[in-house]
Amino acid sequence: MSASHRLARPALFALALGLSSAAIAQTPPPPAPPAAGRPAEPRRLAVTGEGQAFRAPDLALVQLTVMRQGETAQKALADNSAAMSAVQGALPEFGLEARDVQTSGFTIAPQYRYDTASDGTQAPPTLVGYEVRNTITLRVRAVDRLGEILDRAVSLGVNDGGSIEFVAEDPSALQNEARRTAVERARASAEAMAGAAGLRLGALLSIEDGASGIEPPRPVSEMRMMAAPASPKVPVAAGETMASATVRVVFALEN
């Protein structure tokens, strides 16, 4: 056998061995087996519930105004102060304390007369006096006596527009009642939906408080109080204060 033949055989063997190793190196590894024991995502049901709560208001916010006019600012102010002092002096008879009475408006304004000359031209305005308005805001807790308070206030000198707004003194209690109703309705809806799907309602996973608020009865707008004989009792209807709440609740679902 020639020397060239003796050298060729080992070279061919080495080449074959190299190709085999490359083929083994390029073969992709088998996929990893799935992880054992991984819990499946629980089935969930999200629902929204709305609730309302109603209660008779236990607080009235009342605005009363005394208006007086005089030839001078001092005269108008003196007359106004005398009338307002009489009004405030009578308030303790109805259970109102100093903390329940607040001055919420006070103005002194000149009053002018505008004359037109015979030729149609406008004459300069003439100062004829002054007008003083003093407004107080009352927090009346004895809502059932509000008519008596208005009657007495008019008889003592209140003679200009005012307003009444009925509210809940502790709105949080009414708001929480509305939230409880909203949660109960959300659970009832979830149970009905789960039952229709052939499933059972599981654990409560989350709960979120949504939109909520207090809606008082509409204010009695702009009462016109004129200096007229007082009635035995001014009729007042308080109505109801309403609280509303919305909740979003998520439950787990079970077979």
From TrEMBL:
Alphabetically ordered keywords of this record: Signal
Keyword Iron: no
Coiled coil: none
Leader sequence residues: 1-25
TM regions (residue ranges): none
Keyword Ribonucleoprotein included in the entry's annotation: no
GO biological process entries: DNA damage response
Protein name (Swiss-Prot/TrEMBL): 26 kDa periplasmic immunogenic protein
Source species of the chain: Aureimonas jatrophae
